[in-house]
Design goal:
This protein has 6 helices and 13 strands. The strands form 4 sheets. Strands 3-5-9-7 form a 4-stranded antiparallel sheet, with no helix packed on it. It has a 4-stranded antiparallel sheet with strand order 8-6-11-12, with no helix packed on it. The chain has a 3-stranded mixed sheet with strand order 4-13-10, with no helix packed on it.
Length: 262
Amino acid sequence: HRYGAQVTDFMCRERAHEVFISTLQSHRIEKEMLVAEQEKEGQPRHVAQIRREKSSLPEQESNVLSSSAATSGGQHQSQIVSNSASSLSAHPTSLASLCPYRGGSNINIICCWSAVVGNEGRDVTIKGQHHLRDLLVRPLNKSKGCPLALTAKYNSNLSHNFDNGPLDEAVEITICNRLIETEVEFEFAIIDNSEFDFVGTTSFHCSLTGGDEISVPLQARIYAGGVYNLQSVRLTVLKAGSTAVPYLFPLQWTMVVEDSVA
């Protein structure tokens, strides 16, 4: 999306620290210009102004600048998170502070909003806040849902001449352990589908350490044109001394295949 409203920018964790640093630098430049203009015109500086400058927080600014150095230059999120030492002095809105690699896995967010509504022929702006508490962003040892994340990489729009035979299209399924400090043992299985087939390793047993992932290359065999949901994966999480828990995923992997002869 385009970064329009400042509130949206600030709530986007990838830009929160960048927006804060930009605002801080603009404020400092404006303050320096004002001081230079007063000195040029020979105006005396107020005692309150001198006191405010002396009571400023250089330590906070140094922490902000050090955090800015860690996040400048378009570094990836993984590089920022891996720098656990610099995250100790990072600004609260930085990625390193919001999602530290080590530490709590929950965050709290205050979402500010505003809306313009009509009231007796006049436009009135109303404002409010949503307090989102205990959002699980990086589970360490347990998860309320499935501890494994499932994604797929494939071409969603295809054209094929089925007079030459069925279509075999590459599909890469990636399974990631969402838990950071806990190993997860599971079974992978493809559920049979009457409309298409998967060719390759359709079932196996595996164990992933915290934060690790595995990719499964498959071939989707399509026999006719149409719209297909390739999501046919069942993951069964195995726990020692506990009942195995199967998971099915509602997110569709849609593939549209057009018959080039029709």
